[in-house]
Amino acid sequence: MKKPWIGFVVIAWLWAMPTLAMDFKVVFEDAAGVGFNSTEPFAGHGANRASTLGEARRNVLFRAIDMVRSQVHGDGIIVWRVRFNERAGYLAVTLGPAFQEFTSALSPEQNVAKFPFEHGRHYPGPLMLALTSLDSSYADDSGEDATTNFSAYGAYYGYDTNAPTHSFIAVVMHELVHVLGFTDIKCLGNCIPAPVSKPTHFSKYVFGEAKPVDGMSLAELNALYLSRDKLWFTGSAHTQQAAKTLLSGGHTNGSLHLHAEAPYDGQNGSHFAPQMFPAQLMYSAGANTTDFGMAAYVLCDIGWCAGKGEVQDLVVSVATNPMLSNEPSLLSATLENASDYAMTKPELLLQLPASVQLSGLAQGCALEAMSASQQQLRCQLDSLGARQKHRFDATLRAAKGSYALYGRASIKSYAVDPIGMNNIVDVTLSVTDPVPLTVNLGADVEAVAGTDVRLTAQLAGGSGSYQLQWQQTAGPTVSLTQQSNSISFVAPEVSSTTKLTFKVTASDGRQSQTAEVTVTVTPKAKPVEPQPTPPPTPTPPPAPTPPPAPAPQPSPPVQPASSGGAGHGMVWLLLLAVWRNRRRWR
Ligand SMILES: [Zn+2]
What we know:
This protein has 586 residues and is of the alpha+beta class.
């Protein structure tokens, strides 16, 4: 059997090496050049920038695995064989998971702490692995847990479902839920002869027309599977409540309708009925969604949640302030419990290049080396209350460039998280050189004594947040009033033209720049002394105003006839009077 992508297997595995956690060992079974090994050029979908179709498919597969790993906690390794292989009638089909009969003798404490296993029942191998790491007989990573055949059905290879076609990531998520044990029970009923068979652990939650299928004869089961929509999954009180809250169709008193249409298509016990609404990941034909939705509750009931079976939604977000080359910058990662139950041991892992320096780590965080080029920030909390947030801060410093940051948040306490997209952060940190700070006071200013003068600093670049310091550097001191980016003052009384200079120093905390401007103050024009109340003389004596200039003798004869020089003189007198008035009332 060819394993041309063993390198990818190792990479996927390394991810979780530092801790004990559920991991997937993927075995690619396609021949060279096809399926996951296709070399067909790929143009990129969404954030998936692969260059070949095979690489694009593998990227999506590992992204889906990461989402599931962040949503379902467990210990151990699941061996998953995958290939592209059209099988008539299936868009994708998973064979398995392998079931194992539970025969181990766990101590009562172990059994209660983990999950109440029943002797003689058959449990999905991955679940056994996840929950019985105490017992080495189940920690077998040499065999296979499940095999999945994919087809070209999910032809969109972004990490989202924002495409007109079906997204491959939704297909992979769907199949992974089968791998975790959301499976058909029919085969076990057939394959394991009664009474040895207690057909799977899953089946004890499955009812047909209100009767538990556990214990039904094969004939009864067959009849039930041929009935339409008479097969229900009835889980915990949490499941029943969620069904009423989250679904507008496809449930009866909180019991989820399972698909029970055809006896041999493998859909009956392992998928929700088509009338379930809104569409669910485990809908018969595979809804185009990456949320576990109600499947989270089913997974919880069949063992992936310990104890009380709460389904908990953990959300992670990451923010940085603008990162300048080799300057400290703040990285904030926030974990949010978006559910109504307190969660225990939420954890955040952030992978980033080793060349990014991290310091000032928040309490609960530690830095781990992954390789020469990668490091990982691990932050843990003991608990996070319902609807609470917790922020982890760190100081980042890096040279100019782009840095990929990838992370996932998970709950370490056997909870199932219904929404996987919000457990993943995938951002590019962009570190730039600081933009030069500039400050400008404009052209020099002229002002008449006694008038208001305003100087405004024009600022650009830097961080965008500025502090200004104004200073008068020459001339008679004036009193400055500062307002935002401006100062104002009254031009002082001067007896002759006087220059005042002002300097502003602008700073954004990192850079500072100065600018200067000169204000030239001219004396007030001599005001016309108010006449000592000129008596209202009725007829001011004809002012000894300059007589109308006698027309130059050789006056150009071209002058058109007009009202003559006297008329002009009157106009000037009037203008002068107006002008004087203006001066007086100024
Ligand atoms: Zn399916």
